Description:
- The protein is globular, with a radius of gyration of 19 Å.
- Helix content is about 35%, strand content about 15%.
- By secondary structure, the chain is α/β, with parallel strands linked by helices.
- Strands 1-2-3-4-5-6-8 form a 7-stranded parallel beta sheet.
- The longest helix is centred in the middle third of the chain and has 14 residues, at about 195-205.
- Mean pLDDT is about 90; it is low at about 50-60.
Amino acid sequence: MGLDQYVHTLGNYMKARYGQKIHKLTIDASFTCPNRDGSLGRGGCTFCNVSSFSREFGSHKSVAEQLAQGKLHRGVEKRYMAYFQAYTSTYDEYRVLKQRYQEAVNVSDIIGLCVGTRPDCVPDEVLSLLLEYQQQGMEVWLELGLQSANDETLKRINRGHGFAEYRDTVLRARNLGLKVCTHLIMGLPGEGPEQAFETLDQVLALGVDGIKLHPLHVVQNSIMAKQYQAGRLSLMDADTYMDTAAAMIRRTPKEVVFHRVSAYAKPPELIAPSWCGDKWLALNGIIERLKRDGGQGSALA
């Protein structure tokens, strides 16, 4: 039995709304990040691969070309979401953002936009632009990388913003009727399951439409890679992650959409933990726990 039986997944949500499976097509639209370009700093978040800082940002292909390429690997699906994933996809001049987004929605079988960004880089004019697409009938999700609601943790990982910026952006977006998906990383330095539950509680109390869960994993050329190799960083083991993720899902109301409940990386980029190199291990473990203990929202009954 799959995750969809126990969790309100994005796949479930899309199929109920559009009558078919809708895939995300990932786009690198040459955006950067204020924590990379010197506006906030140049070191980036400690979990980021900093070797890419010295390379030219973005794909050499246009948005339309990247979408066309993405479709080649998606079989018979006829409609898609354009996912602006790379770096901070609201961090540029308004005219540039509009041009990039418009190039995506001009593609006939694109039914909407997912825009990934930081909570401190979403001015009102960008929210208004996204609202325009929603009012035109597009499916629009604003994806905010919060990672943790604990300000001390955010400082520790050199995030460059606090929970207050997240709160402000969520309230402004949801007051307009825009859907917000929040990214959370479990196992950040100094955090265990209890801190993950505290973050979830704060996010849910504020209001959120979607959630992405990620285990912390160490990648090449990151500050965390140096910390790990020096023995200064401990990582969450697979069982703890699966236990924690399943418990968070059970504590989440059934109407919240889970866009993801785990993540993985491949060697040689992945340094540790090794279990994050197995795409199915954590997912299958989470499913087993939900089957045993109850699905999404069951802890709220």
